[in-house]
Amino acid sequence: MERLEQQAVNQACTLIYTSGTTGNPKAVMLTQDNITWTVGQAQRIYSWGYDQESVVSYLPLSHVAGTFIDIYLNMMGGGTVYFADKMALQGTLLKTLVEAKPTLFFGVPRVYEKIQEKMMEIAKKNTGMKKSVGDWAKKVTFEHHQALMEGRAGNSLSYKIANKTVMAGVRKALGFENTKGFYSSAAPLSEEVFKYFQSLDMPIQELLGSSETSGPQSASTPGVNMKIGSVGKIYPSFL
Hints:
The chain has helices at 2-5, 32-45, 64-77, 93-100, 109-123, 128-149, 157-174, 191-199, and strands at residues 12-17, 27-31, 54-57, 80-83, 104-106, 181-184, 204-206, 209-210, 215-216, 218-219, 233-234. The protein has a single domain (2-238), classed as ANL, N-terminal domain (Rossmann fold, 3-Layer(aba) Sandwich). The chain contains eight helices and eleven strands. 44% of the residues lie in helices and 15% in strands. It is of the alpha/beta class. The chain is globular. Helix 8 (191-199) links the parallel strand 6 (181-184) and strand 7.
């Protein structure tokens, strides 16, 4: 109680070390209200369900993305965190995803690129009718999400069939059967990767963030607020 009484919302809560810089390590002081305000905005914008969400922790907790998502977002939202092993980025992440079945997944572009590379290797083995069905399913799924981004209805009968017969199996194989949101930041997502995951019924929502803002400061959301090369709309109070 004494420690709580000595704290103030404008005082530093934690230190975050910036990535990609040269020289000595550089730390950012994040205040209590910086973190709690940003968490509240993120939960509202991304329709966070209290005591319903789960994530897989595999990013460094010394940087803002891992700390914000795996600690503060889940701690304040009653979420569940599954910790991947130390070899996650060397190939074991998929095994953890299949076991954990996260409802939300955040990855830097390189993580999505590695998943794409793996999926394309598997797809090369498909021939004949299996290849034709797969190509058709990706085409109609891509068109569905393209329609939503352009403000059209989408959700055609072809998309519903493709989703049930093909894409549901793809998501399950990756551990994404319960995942309702895919997010990316830290670097621009390539057009090729963006379109590829769109065709797999896993549209990636890009966002802009920084250490100084506790992480996210803009957000793409499904539909007309998402497009290639965009990090979405700025958080309201950043205007």
